[in-house]
Each structure stands twice: as C-alpha cells, then as structure tokens.
Design goal:
two-stranded antiparallel ribbon; single chain; 4 helices; mainly alpha
C-alpha cells in the first residue's frame, strides 16, 4: 500500500514539473517566469553569486529592511525599478 502512494506521488510531481516546463518556466529553487529568470540572470552575472548566494542575500536584504523599518522604502524602490 505504501509503495503505491510513493509511486502516485512521484507521478504527480513529474506531471507538475512537465506542466511548469510547458509554461516556459525554469526551475531555480522553484519555477520562475521568463522575466524573473532575466532578473536572476542579471543579478548572477553582475555579482557572480550562485543560486544559493542569490537567495541568501535576498533574504538578508529583506530582513535588514524589515529590522530597520524600511520595508515600505524597499518595496517602493523595487516598484520604481521594475523593468
């Protein structure tokens, strides 16, 4: 019984991954849209950071903005600099 559940779950995950690829999304710690992938590639090219470093530093920036009470300022900057 347990083996059937594992096989069913694996098939469900495979269908999900195929659907995301068909939608033109690429997996980088999750599936992202084409514009998001362009931003990721730009950040990676400018900084030389790996996927893990990009994620870690994004979290650090967000947390620092939160601790300093600057989330609104960060959000406004991100909206103003949206491509």
């Amino acid at each position: 019984m347990q083996n059937k559940k594992l096989v069913a779950n694996a098939e469900k995950q495979k269908r999900f991954r195929l659907k995301q690829k068909e939608l033109g999304k690429k997996q980088v710690r999750g599936y992202v849209t084409a514009p998001a992938m362009e931003c990721y590639a730009e950040i990676s090219a400018k900084t030389g950071w790996t996927d893990s470093e990009v994620l870690s530093n994004a979290l650090r920036i967000t947390y620092a903005a939160y601790k300093c009470g600057q989330i609104k300022l960060l959000n406004e900057w991100l909206k103003d600099h949206n491509k």
